[in-house]
Design brief:
four-stranded antiparallel β-sheet, mainly beta, Methylamine Dehydrogenase, Chain H
Length: 361
C-alpha cells in the first residue's frame, strides 16, 4: 500500500490540508476559515471528502467535496423529526456531528453519522438524506442509563463497519458503552462485559461506560481497542469480553485518542493525560505510548516532543496512522508527525487552532 500524501485537519478555525511533496509536508490550503470543523472523512469508495461543521451561529452543517477540497457543496445535515424528545419534555435536536462512517464496499451509497444526543443516522443515497436508526434510539437502556460526560448529552463518537460484513456494526457511545448489530441496525446488543466504570455505583454495570474512542484492527476486525474513561481496554473476540490493559505504574492510563496498526492487531498507540479531573499532559511532558504485544507492555515515546512546560492533550479523533507514519494534533495547536512508528516526532506547526481531528488521505 502506497503511503498517503495528504493530511486533513479539522480545527477550531477551519479545515487545514497539508500535502507531502519531495519528502516534505507543506500547507496546501484551508477551507471554512474561521468556522469550527469537528470532523473530516475521505470516502475510500469514491474519494468524496466530507466535513462536519460546528457553526457557532447556524449550528451543525455538513459539506462534501468531489475535488479534494477545492470546492464544497452543502448537503442537509441529519436532524430529528419534530416532536422527538431526548427525555420527557426536552426536544431532541442535533447538537454535534461526532462520528462518520461509510457503509462498506457492497453499499456504495450508504453513510452513517453519529451525533449528540446519542443518535445514529443512516443515508442510503450518498448523504442526500438521512434517517434516524430508531432501533438504537429506542433501545430500552437509553432513557435511564445513557448520559452526558464531557458534553451535556450522550454522543456517538465511533462507528465501525465490519469490512467482512456491512451489516455488522459497532458504535461507541459516551456515556453508555459499546453496542453491536449483526443485522444492519434492526437490533442491538450491549458489548460492555469486562469494562470498568469507576464513576458509577456499580463499576461493572451493563450500560453506562464511557469509551473515548473505539477502533478496530484492519488486519483482524475481531480485535477492538478503546481508550476508556477508566483506562485502556481490548477485546480479541469481537466485543464479547474486554481486557483491561491499563499501565499499572506508567502514563498509559487516561486519555482520548487511540490508533491501531494496519497490519498488526497487537500494536497500538495512545496519547495520555493525567486524569478526567486534570486534563493536561502527564508531568507536563508530552509523550505517546505504544504497545507491540497487545497491551502486555507499553513504551513511552518522547523523542522530539516537549518534555517540560507542556499542557497539551489530544482529542479522540486527532491521532491517525498510515503504515509507519503517524500524526496527531493537540488542543494548543501543535501538529506532530512521525515516520518510524512514533520512535521520533517532528513538529510540523505550533501555531494552529485547537485540533479536533487528524486524518491521512
Amino acid at each position: 500500500m502506497n503511503p498517503k500524501n495528504l493530511l486533513i485537519l479539522g480545527t477550531r478555525k477551519g479545515l487545514v490540508t497539508y500535502q507531502k511533496s519531495d519528502g516534505k509536508w507543506k500547507l496546501r490550503d484551508t477551507s471554512f476559515l474561521g468556522i469550527p470543523v469537528s470532523l473530516t472523512h475521505v470516502d475510500s469508495r469514491n474519494g468524496t471528502w466530507w466535513a462536519c461543521l460546528d457553526h457557532g451561529h447556524w449550528g451543525q452543517k455538513l459539506h462534501k467535496s468531489q475535488d479534494q477540497g477545492k470546492t464544497w457543496q452543502e448537503v442537509g445535515a441529519p436532524k430529528y423529526d419534530e416532536g422527538m424528545e431526548v427525555k420527557e419534555g426536552e426536544a431532541a435536536a442535533v447538537r454535534y456531528l461526532w462520528a462518520f462512517a461509510e457503509g462498506g464496499p457492497d453499499k456504495s451509497d450508504t453513510i452513517y453519522i453519529g451525533t449528540e444526543p446519542g443518535g445514529l443516522f443512516k443515508s442510503h443515497d450518498g448523504g442526500n438524506s438521512f434517517t434516524l436508526v430508531e432501533s438504537l434510539w429506542n433501545h430500552p437502556s437509553r432513557s435511564d442509563h445513557w448520559f452526558g460526560g464531557g458534553r451535556d448529552y450522550p454522543g456517538i463518537h465511533s462507528i465501525l463497519v465490519d469490512p467482512r460484513d456491512s451489516d455488522h456494526i459497532y458504535v461507541g457511545i459516551s456515556v453508555a458503552g459499546v453496542f453491536e448489530t449483526h443485522d444492519g441496525g434492526s437490533s442491538w446488543e450491549v458489548k460492555n462485559k469486562g469494562l470498568r466504570a469507576d464513576f458509577l455505583p456499580d463499576p461493572q454495570a451493563e450500560v453506562g461506560h464511557d469509551p473515548h474512542l473505539l477502533v478496530a484492527s484492519p488486519s483482524n476486525p475481531d480485535v477492538l481497542w478503546q481508550q476508556n474513561h477508566c483506562g485502556i481496554f481490548r477485546t480479541t473476540n469481537g466485543g464479547n469480553s474486554w481486557q483491561d490493559l491499563t499501565q499499572a505504574d506508567g502514563p498509559a492510563r487516561f486519555g482520548f485518542a487511540i490508533a491501531v496498526a494496519e497490519n498488526n492487531p497487537d500494536r497500538a498507540w495512545v496519547v495520555p493525560a493525567i486524569s478526567d479531573e486534570i486534563r493536561v499532559a502527564v508531568d507536563n511532558a508530552l509523550c505517546v505510548c505504544r504497545t507491540d504485544d497487545g497491551g502486555k507492555t507499553w513504551k513511552d515515546l518522547r523523542s522530539g516532543l516537549p518534555q517540560s512546560d507542556c499542557y497539551d492533550i489530544v482529542f479522540r479523533h486527532a491521532l491517525d496512522v498510515d503504515g509507519d507514519n503517524l500524526s496527531f494534533g493537540t488542543t494548543t495547536g501543535n501538529l506532530y508527525l512521525s515516520d518510524n512508528g512514533g520512535d521520533h516526532w517532528d513538529c510540523l506547526n505550533s501555531n494552529l487552532p485547537m485540533v479536533y481531528s487528524v486524518a491521512f488521505a
